[in-house]
């Protein structure tokens, strides 16, 4: 039986200067601090009852793991079975307020953890007087660079039950990117053709499109426009409003809102042509080159970082600055 993944639930990042990261995530973006321990910071959005962003100070920036909430403790045993079946490295781990996590390295090198139990904190959703920054609500998705999009997509669909909502194809029918979900909106995870395994970005949901504009204004007010990489805009893919930022270590965070419902079991995935100018930004704005080339390295199962491979498909789409 396949483990039942509910949704993306957490991301863990290595950062070089925790105070600089705190100034960005808490000071500018308004994330709520759940706990701080020496060299560690645990953050959540206003809708979340448990932490979803873990920052750990380290000499080199990177991604500790991408984490998924599963439906029960038994699903963690199913993850262990799956790892055995596919010959994947796996172990049980504990984290702060996560008494049992199962960590695997997927067949493409990404560090992935699964958990069920978490520590719930005070409900803040309607404590509007305490909102700071643009009002970051909850983690929405991660997007990874993979050298082999089709193969990575097949594994996540077959082994973990992710469902395809949108994909980008060229005229020869080669797959350049794909968006898959578990929770019922456009994605919990996306695959982008590129040097990998690396994290492309992770994203948090904002209350509405005006909050995306507000985030840009806050960064401008704080003289931090160098943190803005792309947007604000509306994606063609997903229809969501977006703003891409780079944190002090270069990790890319997207502020995201207003995509659509995907719960119908017979939902038909949307196909986008690679060179459709409306694909990345519906209004046709060009995308900076850094967005296609730069990402965060990911931690190897035994420590250190996973060496990357060049992508199978070479070249950049049109509409690049
Ligand atoms: Fe995204």
SSE layout and pairings?
Elements: E1 5-15, H1 18-28, E2 32-37, E3 40-44, E4 53-57, E5 62-70, H2 73-86, E6 90-95, E7 98-105, E8 111-115, E9 138-146, H3 149-160, E10 163-169, E11 175-181, E12 189-193, E13 198-205, H4 209-221, E14 228-234, E15 241-246, E16 252-257, E17 270-273, H5 289-293, E18 296-297
Parallel strand pairs: 1-4, 5-8, 9-12, 10-17, 13-16
Antiparallel strand pairs: 1-5, 2-3, 3-4, 6-7, 7-8, 9-13, 10-11, 11-12, 13-18, 14-15, 15-16
Bound molecules: fe (ii) ion.
Fe (ii) ion (FE2) binds next to β9, β13 and β16.
Can you give me a brief rundown of this structure?
The chain is of the alpha+beta class. The chain contains 5 helices and 18 strands. The strands form 2 sheets. Strands 9, 10, 11, 12, 13, 14, 15, 16, 17 and 18 form a 10-stranded mixed β-sheet that branches. The protein has an 8-stranded mixed β-sheet with strand order 2-3-4-1-5-8-7-6, covered by helices on one side.
Walkthrough of the structure:
- The chain has 321 residues and is an alpha+beta fold.
- The chain has two domains: 5-117, Roll (2,3-Dihydroxybiphenyl 1,2-Dioxygenase, domain 1), CATH 3.10.180; 137-297, 2,3-Dihydroxybiphenyl 1,2-Dioxygenase, domain 1.
- Helix content is 17%, strand content 36%.
- It has helices spanning 18-28, 73-86, 149-160, 209-221, 289-293; strands spanning 5-15, 32-37, 40-44, 53-57, 62-70, 90-95, 98-105, 111-115, 138-146, 163-169, 175-181, 189-193, 198-205, 228-234, 241-246, 252-257, 270-273, 296-297.
- The longest helix has 14 residues, at 73-86.
- The protein starts with a strand and ends in a 24-residue tail after the last strand.
- It binds fe (ii) ion (FE2).
- The site of fe (ii) ion has 6 residues, from strand 9, strand 13 and strand 16.
């Amino acid at each position: 039986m396949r483990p039942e993944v509910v949704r993306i639930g957490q991301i863990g990042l290595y950062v070089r200067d925790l105070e600089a990261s705190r100034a960005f995530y808490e000071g500018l973006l308004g994330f709520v601090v759940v706990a701080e321990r020496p060299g560690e910071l645990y953050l959540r959005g206003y809708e979340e009852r448990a932490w979803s962003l873990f920052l750990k100070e380290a000499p080199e920036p990177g991604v500790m793991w991408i984490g998924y909430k599963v439906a029960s403790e038994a699903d963690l045993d199913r993850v262990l079975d799956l790892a055995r079946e596919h010959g994947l490295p796996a172990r049980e781990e504990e984290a702060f307020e996560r008494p049992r996590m199962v960590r695997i390295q997927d067949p493409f090198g990404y560090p992935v953890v699964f958990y069920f139990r978490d520590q719930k904190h005070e409900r803040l959703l309607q404590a509007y007087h305490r909102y700071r920054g643009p009002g970051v609500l909850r983690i929405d998705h991660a997007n990874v660079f993979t050298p082999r999009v089709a193969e990575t997509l097949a594994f996540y669909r077959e082994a973990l039950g992710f469902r395809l909502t949108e994909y980008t194809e060229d005229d020869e029918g080669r797959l350049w990117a794909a968006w898959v979900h578990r929770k019922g909106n456009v994605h919990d995870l996306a695959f982008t053709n590129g040097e990998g395994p690396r994290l492309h970005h992770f994203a948090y949901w904002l209350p509405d499109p005006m909050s995306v504009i507000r985030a840009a204004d806050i960064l401008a007010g704080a003289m931090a426009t160098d943190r803005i990489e792309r947007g604000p805009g509306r994606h063609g893919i997903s229809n969501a409003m977006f703003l891409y930022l780079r944190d002090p270590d270069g990790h890319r965070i997207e502020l995201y809102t207003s995509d659509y419902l995907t719960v119908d079991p017979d939902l038909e995935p949307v196909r986008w042509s690679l060179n459709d100018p409306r694909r990345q930004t519906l209004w046709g704005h060009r995308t900076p080159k850094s967005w296609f080339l730069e990402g965060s390295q990911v931690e190897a199962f035994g420590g250190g970082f996973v060496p990357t491979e060049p992508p199978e498909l070479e070249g950049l789409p049109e509409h690049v600055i």
